[in-house]
Amino acid sequence: MTAALPAALDAELSALLGPQGWRTDEAARRAHGEDDSRQWALPDAVAIPADRSQVQAIVRACRAHRVPIVARGAGTGTTAAAVPSAGGVVVSFARMDRILDIRPADRCAVVEPGVLNGQLQQALQPHGLFWAPDPSSAERCSIGGNLACNAGGPRAVKYGTTRDNVLGLVAVTGAGELIRCGGPWTKDATGYDLTHLLVGSEGTLALIVEATLRLLPRPRAQAGLRVFYRDAGCAAAAVARLMRQPQVPATLEFIDAAAIALLRRNGSQVPDAGAMLLVEADGEPEGLPEALQALASAAEGEGLVDMDVATDGAARDRLWAARKALSPALRSIAPGKINEDVVVPVSRIPDLVAGVEALAREQRLPIVVFGHAGNGNLHVNIMYHPEDAAESARAFATLPRVFELVLELGGTLSGEHGIGLAKRDYMARAFDPATLAAMRAIKAALDPDGILNPGKVLPPA
C-alpha cells in the first residue's frame, strides 16, 4: 500500500480482489497513470475487478473512506479523462472483457466494458452484423471507453455515434448502487433516459459494467469518391449538397489545403487543391452504382478540380491511403501536436477553416484541419516543437482562441474525444451558469460524495 491509502481500505480490497486484482506496486500504478493525452499522475492503487459485484464493493469501500475512483478502459483517450489527477484508485476493466450474448434476432449484443471494439466487430462478422462506432483506435480501444466519451468515427455521418448505438446499460453509481436502464428494444417511453445520460459522462456519474449495444446489418458492398476543390468554401458547399440529397453517405471526410500540401510533400499522389472530400457509399451491390452516382452528382459544382471513383477493394484502399497517411505525416512537421475535435454547423466549415488559417499566420504555427465533414466535426491539429519554449507557448495560447472561434460559429468543444481534464475549464464558456448548475445537480444525485473521476468534465463551481 501507499502512504496515502487508508490501511483499512487496502486490507479490505486486497482480501476482496486478491493479488491479481489489487495492485499497489509502483509498476502497476505507473502503467495505469496515463492515457494518450500524454498527461499522467500516479494513483495510490489499481483495482482490476472480475465482475460487477466486485465493482460495487470497490465503490462502497472507496466511498466509506472518501477515496477517489477513476475508471479506465484501454487508455486510448486524449483528454486526460482516465488520468488519476486526484490520486485514489484506478478501476481497470481489463478483466471484465466478455461478450455475454449476441442476439441476431434482436440485433443487439450484450458486453462487458473491457471488450475491445475490434474484438466485438470480429465476433459479429459471422452474423453479418456490425457495431457502428469506428474511432481511429478501434482495434485497441474498449467498449467502455467508447461509452465514456461517446466515441464516433467516419461512419457517424450515416450510422451515428456511440450514444445512438446503445440500447441499455447496467452501472454502479457513486453511492455503490447497481442501476439498470434501457434494454434490448429500440422504443421506450418509460421514465428518464438514463442510458444516454451515462454515455459520454466519462466515468463521473457511474461505472458502466454491462452494455446492450444496437447492431446493424453489415453492408455487402462499398464504393468511394475522392473529390478536389479550389478552396474550403467550395468543398463545404458540396458537403451541404451531399447532406441535403436522399442518399446519405456512409462517410464524408474533409481535408484542408495545409493537409493536402503536407501529403504532397510526403509523396502522396494527390493534385494540388484547396480542399478534398472523401465520400463513400455502402449498401447492396445492385443498388450501389445508383447511390454512387447520386453522391457524385451532389459533389459536382463550383470550384470542382478533380474527382476519382473507386468501386473495388483495392481502389478504395488507394483512395483512403491519403487520409490514413495524414496522422503519421503530421509528425514530419513537428513532434508536438495539440489535436482538438471541435464541431461547427456544416455551413460554417469555411468560416472555421478561414479562422484557423488566420490564427496559423498570426501565431506563425502550422495548423492542419481534417475530419468528419458530414457532422461538422473537424480535427484541428496545432503543430509545434516542444523543445522551443516560445513556440510551445504560442501553440498553447492558440488553443483557447480556437475554442472561442468554434463557439462564436455556433459550435461545440468536442464531437467524439470528450472533455476530461484538457477541456474542462472551457466548459464555462460553452454553457451558461444555469445549465452547468443542472449538470452539477445530476452529478451530486448519482455521486453524492464526488468520488467518481473528480475534477473532470465540470469546472469548479
Topology of helices and strands:
Blueprint (H helix, E strand, L loop, with lengths): L6 H15 E2 L2 H6 L13 E3 L4 H13 L4 E4 L16 E4 L6 E5 L4 E4 L5 H8 L4 E2 L12 H7 L6 H4 L6 E8 L4 E5 L11 H5 L7 E9 L1 E2 L3 E9 L2 H13 L6 E6 H9 L9 E9 L4 H12 L4 E7 L2 H18 L5 E8 L5 H15 L3 E6 L4 E8 L4 H20 L18 H4 L2 H14 L15
Parallel strand pairs: 2-4, 3-4
Antiparallel strand pairs: 1-2, 5-6, 6-10, 7-11, 8-9, 8-10, 12-14, 12-15, 13-14, 13-17, 16-18, 17-18
Characterization of this structure:
The protein is an alpha+beta fold and 461 residues long. Among the domains are: 86 residues, Uridine Diphospho-n-acetylenolpyruvylglucosamine Reductase, domain 2; 119 residues, Uridine Diphospho-n-acetylenolpyruvylglucosamine Reductase, domain 3; 102 residues, Alpha-Beta Plaits (2-Layer Sandwich), CATH 3.30.70.2190. The chain is 35% helix and 22% strand. It is built from 15 helices and 18 strands. The strands form 4 sheets. The protein has a 7-stranded antiparallel beta sheet with strand order 15-12-14-13-17-18-16, with helices on both faces. Strand 8 and strand 9 form a beta hairpin. Helix 1 packs antiparallel against helix 3, helix 8 packs antiparallel against helix 12 and helix 12 packs antiparallel against helix 13. The two termini are 33 Å apart. The mean pLDDT is 95.
